[in-house]
Amino acid sequence: MINNDVLRRVRYALNLNDAAMMDVFALSDYDITREDLLKLLKKDNEDNFVALTNVQLALFLDGLIAYKRGKKEDAAVKKPEGELDNNAILRKLRIAFEFKEEDMLHTLQLADFELSKPELSAFFRHADHKHHRKCGDQVLRNFLQGLIIHCRQSENDEMDD
To answer: Alpha-carbon distance 104 to 120, whole Å?
Structure first.
């Protein structure tokens, strides 16, 4: 899945404006200008599109964890990993939203995507584990779609109160 798509979908799910997006990046000590952010948010067929690197997405997701859960004051700034696959993206989103296994499965169900507990847990196993499985684009795409529904429903429920 294209990193820029992940960035756009998380932005939409959380209804983040440009300033909030820049703040999320800043939480992982990455300064980004509004102009550069807008280039990253473009679709790949639009003019001035700039591809989001794995390092940039990892920094954004690390910033998202701090944004959603609070920044740890005593935590050392860790260097983002260069290899960022769908499993790592899913793991970082799970941490950011403090999702348990049931929350993950429910989020996938919101997107009409069924997955069993063993199938889900296989994505979070160490790569050397015999039951580890690679998370495909379809699973990540459906999880992000379910996340949009989950976050937007919560937002609408709060407005109704």
So the answer is: 8
Rounded CA-CA distance 75/21 in Å is 22
The CA-atom distances, in angstroms, between 71 and each of 41, 96, 108, 140, 151 are 25, 11, 28, 26, 21
Domain boundaries defined on the chain: 1-82, 85-161
Each residue's pLDDT, cut to its tens digit, for the chain (161 residues) gives 899 999 999 999 999 999 999 999 999 999 999 999 999 999 999 999 999 999 999 999 999 999 999 877 655 555 555 579 999 999 999 999 999 999 999 999 999 999 999 999 999 999 899 999 999 999 999 999 999 999 988 666 665 55
pTM equals 0.89
Task: List b or e across 50-81, with b for residues whose CB sees 16 or more CB atoms inside 10 angstroms.
Answer: eebebbbbbbbbbbbbbbeeeeeeeeeeeebe
